[in-house]
Amino acid sequence: MAGASTTAPAFAAAPPTSAAAIQTVTDSIESGSVKVNTDLAALDFSRMTQIAANGERHVTIPLAVGGTPFSTLQLVVDRDNEVTDYSEVHFTEYTPDSGHVTKWSKDQVVLDQDFTAATDRAIKRGIGDAIGELNSCLSSAGIPAWMIAAVIVACKPIMGPGLAACLVAGGVGAATAAYCQGRAISRL
Q: Which of 73, 75, 94 is nearest to 84 (CA)?
């Protein structure tokens, strides 16, 4: 098919989350090398997931904060089982069409902003087909419009293979992120 990409996605299924992976994360938090901006009881290890990318594991742990199921702690773990990077995002819903996002990269706030569904519509009009496709895909996955606006603002500069990792760090499930990344990139 003309224009279709045959490039394989940079993300693949990782081994199931193991006790060792959970131990790596908890050791990093307890040692202080990973600083968490929420009560540790909010970490939902029972729903911890990971995806493999470029020899690393991107581990996502859902957080029970803010009244939505999308808040996460995202860690990058290298082949030596060391945490090399991490971020945390909290989504707080005000109404079905509005909410607030706070995102930390390591322990520095990089996003602290209110979003509305109207913001989402303006973003979709302003930056083109790829973002429009990403928006549509995420919306079809059941992610609220205000959260899509927040994730698109946070991930907009990354319209390549790193997009899925950014989406996962923003609270989007790994499988949805990889699928929607492919759909968005196909529009470039």
A: 75
